[in-house]
Amino acid sequence: xxxxxxxxxxxxxxxxxxxxxxxxxxxxxxxxxxxxxxxxxxxxxxxxxxxxxxxxxxxxxxxxxxxxxxxxxxxxxxxxxxxxxxxxxxxxxxxxxxxxxxxxxxxxxxxxxxxxxxxxxxxxxxxxxxxxxxxxxxxxxxxxxxxxxxxxxxxxxxxxxxxxxxxxxxxxxxxxxxxxxxxxxxxxxxxxxxxxxxxxxxxxxxxxxxxxxxxxxxxxxxxxxxxxxxxxxxxxxxxxxxxxxxxxxxxxxxxxxxxxxxxxxxxxxxxxxxxxxxxxxxxxxxxxxxxxxxxxxxxxxxxxxxxxxx
Length: 310
Fold this sequence. Notes:
single chain, globular, disordered N terminus, alpha+beta, 8 helices, 10 strands, 3-stranded mixed β-sheet, 4-stranded antiparallel β-sheet
């Protein structure tokens, strides 16, 4: 809905017709009490109490306004976005929705992380990749990298269709936490790291996980993390315990990006951390137990992981 405008000096301009209110005239500048009351009643849908202070009425009106010059925002989708969205909808209808029941049957079974039981997902992924419905979330794709990278604006209505089934983004290589790791590597990896770690993710050859939260601290605040990343010559040694590490039990999960403290003595609590890439088969990486989320186990798991002199 278009919004009226508050100027920068305490007055305001309201175009009631924008709200479908045709019997209230536009109000500009510093309005009279009568004008404020008319607009207040139109916006709130109730009569203004005669005893209601003027400032309270102004505050209510200001809550329905935006500062600065009046601008109309348009959200027109490009032809490319509409075309890709239609193709995703078509693919979902023909290939993904028909196997949704089977996916959940596998997810509820003890074979939820069995590569043979999940092979049908790989088949779907291969079809989507061949059609170019791949890595749609990633706007930083290079010409020699697979997929059709879109801006967030263009991707949003397409992801809306994918996410009608929570597991479906995986079919298009657009699923968390892999997407976040690809974005991180795309932004920070050097060329050698990009080839070794990012490219296999973009190709869909493997998955990855992000190891952040910990069982013994309130780890929604990363400054509480206790996992250490200690430099030892040209190497690093990692010690700690992580949990709810989504996708880390998936048979395609090849590595984790772990956040820990590289400089715990730094007086700036927000400058103590770093991230490190750890292959899942590194000695000392121990998956201790899976954990339920929303009262269920999931494909890929959300386990607790011990890192013992990794």
